[in-house]
């Protein structure tokens, strides 16, 4: 039977476009709009901005960003890889629960960890207060204490929040290795360190490189930590140049530098895996089993795994819970209720629109006979790599232009001013979330559709169902789990997103993330604690999904 979606092509005439192809191309164009806008603004500034930036602030922004990226990437790679190796290869006290506890810092946004660390270690915090009481010191001049709000502290905080990306991928890679490789190495006299360095690490290198690349991209995206610690990076430079100096062209040019760094990271990660080839030895391969670590070695392994979990999860939760209990009345603050409702509404709308758009695009590309949608679909993944501040710059200006054109047309027709329909509401935030997290939904949809046997939709089409009917009757029922997971993951990431929300939110509009930022910036950690704990609770849902899918 001929495919009902095929079209007869008449020589010399272009085939008539179908709705699925046009829709997929339109979604791709929307996702790529902010990136194109940033590049256009950078190439067409209102004045000689590049020279001024290069001679003044850009070197400082760039050097701090590079130092953070390299340091956080290196520390996260070391902690995540070693922790993954220990929990996969060895049996020591607490390994059963530490294997899953090491994922929990993913639930804590880095900026929440920064506020908690400063509150815990600052002059009036419990650590220094206890030191002064125990030693009889009266003020800070009596003792030396490291500077908390510094670049080094920012590296520790961001690493504690992001190392699980490396840990998760490295653990999966180590678990999939063949135990025979380690048996051979051990028979040749290789000890624990040699088996890790010469067998495990080279075979898991692609996974470690991919996780480290994600960590470095998230580092350059960070705004809350570096702004709170006073570290001037490319992301804080966008806020300074645009919001304080009113220079959109300069902000766009800084944004292109960030995009360049992200492109370099993605390219290096791809090149590092280009010539890597790994094959199983035979069908009888068995997975590594845990070897016992007894005595001091076992306790040392447990302590090594406990430290990142304690710094990245336990400390922030304890500090915030203490403040939330001390100021229980903040839980009934009307501002918190409004922020929670705004978060639910924009996060929920973004999740639904993102997943619907991803389903439409993936299905449309599978149906399409044209090359353009197939070429555009991989390009839409760049939204997840682009930092939120970059997307904010790239979206606000075209949306403002569109709002003004609509307002002018409406005024000419009705004589009334409708105001700014998109940038004056939360619609701009929703669109930013859709662009930023489209890759998550697209990956889930593409993977789930790929697992559906082609014979099932073909049977539906043979029974008279159109493309939409086949999608509703065959694909969606078999993709319920993947669709639900994608909805929750997009929602969770939307709840945690800070830079894009700060740039695009209307006046006096708060989400939980921006409320945490505002209150903590005013040194009111107690007022920020309830919102921060709610964000953490939502983040735990995503961690639960990851733990369930990576058993």
How would you describe the overall organization of this protein?
- The protein is mostly helical and 551 residues long.
- The protein folds into 2 domains: 20-49 and 327-551, MetI-like (MetI-like fold), CATH 1.10.3720.10; 57-110 and 162-273 and 289-318, MetI-like (MetI-like fold, Orthogonal Bundle).
- 74% of the residues lie in helices and 1% in strands.
- The chain contains 25 helices and 2 strands.
- The protein has helices spanning 19-43, 49-55, 58-89, 95-101, 110-121, 126-135, 151-175, 179-187, 192-221, 224-228, 234-244, 248-274, 295-326, 334-367, 371-379, 382-385, 388-414, 427-436, 438-450, 455-462, 467-478, 480-496, 499-504, 512-521, 525-549, and strands spanning 90-91, 291-292.
- A two-stranded parallel ribbon has the order 1-2.
- It starts with 18 loop residues before the first helix and ends with a helix.
- Mean pLDDT is 81; it is low at 1-13 and 278-284.
